[in-house]
Amino acid sequence: MHIVILSLQVSLPGCASLKEKRQRMGGVHERYGRNPAIAVCESGQQNRLEASEWTFVVVGNERQKVESLCSEIEDRVQRTVDGRVMQARRESV
How far apart are CA 4 and CA 59, in angstroms? Predict the structure, then answer.
């Protein structure tokens, strides 16, 4: 069993409200929360409008598949969120 914790820090310049922040994050929780191999939560920066931090716990039997899924998450968040991924950190458990 392989487990990777992926943390993404996202900058949301010009975000003026909590409603706008949720819209700009584009349903990250709903999109990835459906996959049984992924647990996801907003893990930091909840009180800041112009930033957000999300943590994904990715689990799988094959290390390559887990790493591939982490890369897919990073790429998709970068493409679909109206903001910019400032930092991506992976930690193998």
Answer: 7
- Which CATH number characterizes residue 54's domain? 3.30.70.1120
Give me the number of domains the chain comprises: 1
* 12: Cβ contacts below 8 Å, ≥ 6 apart: 21, 24, 25, 49, 50, 51, 52, 82, 83
Q: Which domain does 71 fall in, by range? A: 2-92
pLDDT single digits (tens) 22-72: 888 878 888 888 899 999 999 988 889 999 999 999 999 999 999 999 999
Predicted TM-score of the model (pTM): 0.90
Longest C-alpha distance within the chain, in Å? 42
Residue 32 burial (CB count, 10 A)? 20
